[in-house]
Amino acid sequence: MKLRVLVIDDEPGFLQMLQVILSQAGYYTTTLTSAEDALSILERTPYDICLCDLKMPGMDGMGFLRELKKRNIQTTVIVMSAYGSTDTAIEAMKQGAYDYISKPFKPDEIILTLRKAEEREQLRRENLELKARSEQQSQLVYRSEAMKKVVQTALRIASYKTTVLITGESGTGKEVIARFIHQSSPRQNGPFVPVNCAAIPAGLLESEFFGHVKGAFTDAHGTKKGLIESAQGGTLFLDEVGDLPVSLQVKLLRFLQDGEVRKVGDTRSVKVDVRVIAATGKDLDEAVRNGQFREDLYYRLAVVPIKIPPLRERQEDVPALADYFLKRAKERLGITQRLWINPDAMKILMAYHWPGNVRELENVIERACVLTETGEITPGVLPETLRDGASNQSLGDKLILRGLSIKQNRELMEKALIKKALETTQGNRTRAARLLDLSHRALLYKLKEYGFKDESEP
């Protein structure tokens, strides 16, 4: 993977030279002429390494380092200067710089410095990943390749302040991934503030998000801090962000652009350091097309999109999740006897299509733990809808459609249903006809048409 390098210097000729050198060395390189522009970009887009000149008009290199620390922006910084001294280098290190290089330098010198910084960045990431795995292994349970990719992406972007948009059906675990990102980041000791955007009454949304001052409206008897300010130094998790009204979307966009909030009734704005992770089960692309969601806010939120696949698309996760929920229910409910899931029950769990995803699986396992008398989870303690749903799902999974022909695919479906009905009734055609909602004569005709063997024949 190419490392992303941001170069800041007020000399365009020098920037052009570095662009060529670094690109040839395999780095993805962006060049800027001001520290202010660099901070604006780093707030939105993660860069692995930043090369910054010390002497620049406006904000200089030292000021840039101080702002990085103040805004909690994580990147490896190498400072450059043609007027440097040992004292200057030491001061830059104190402000958070990783290394210092004097101008002019040879191409090999800067590449060697970058390689050293690259090794340091790799070690830092590995340490964060190891720490995250050890702390979060009880929260994230998966075996599938699809979820491995989700977790790898979450770990990759955890250390950056960039906004994240998590999508997926209800019950897939969007908040679990959001908490995992927070706990894997340098903000882990800060607050994690979850907000269900769909649960707050429309009239209170602005006050809840941004806070209010005393007297701002009739019931504002005192000054109140908003949810955004409450997440200072941490992470704000906006669940069901697709349900926000357009009027608040404008204000949220302004906060994401400026990093400032203004309480209702106040005349001044307050700078805040908050990372935003949003989640939705809606199709925001369609909402944008329909005018229900602002396109500029969508792109501001979806800097790093993470899609969590539904449980039916990652069946290999079901046994691990079921065992995890079994242990958790045993501990939470104070059950002393041994609990286990027998193979027949596990087959049903594996075959079911899980419209409620992981949340539904957790509820099913808890119910089974309460109902079992022996500690063994059998098909009998699973909901009837689950057993029927698994049966129907396994039937559907066996069908391989023949193009888009309704006639041909109707024959496939009829044959599959007749076979299933005969298996269920152990070959009793009268009962099978009743299950299929057919007359006995019509069933006999279809058995002959589709070439079913007559068991009564020798």
What is the fold's blueprint, element by element?
Blueprint: E1 4-8, H1 12-24, E2 28-32, H2 35-44, E3 49-53, H3 61-70, E4 76-81, H4 86-94, E5 99-102, H5 107-136, H6 145-157, E6 164-167, H7 174-183, E7 192-196, H8 205-210, E8 211-212, E9 224-225, H9 227-230, E10 235-239, H10 246-258, E11 260-261, E12 270-271, E13 275-280, H11 284-289, H12 295-301, E14 304-307, H13 318-333, E15 340-341, H14 343-351, H15 357-371, E16 376-377, H16 384-397, H17 406-424, H18 429-435, H19 440-449
Parallel strand pairs: 1-2, 1-3, 3-4, 4-5, 6-13, 6-14, 7-10, 10-13, 15-16
Antiparallel strand pairs: 8-9, 11-12
Helix pairs in contact: 6-7, 13-15, 14-16, 17-18, 18-19
Structural class, from secondary structure content? alpha/beta
Approximately how much beta-strand content do the residues carry?
A: 5-15%
> How many whole angstroms does the radius of gyration measure?
30 Å
Mean pLDDT: 85
**Total of helices:** 19
CATH H-tier superfamily of the largest domain = P-loop containing nucleotide triphosphate hydrolases
Q: Label the CATH architecture of the largest domain.
A: 3-Layer(aba) Sandwich
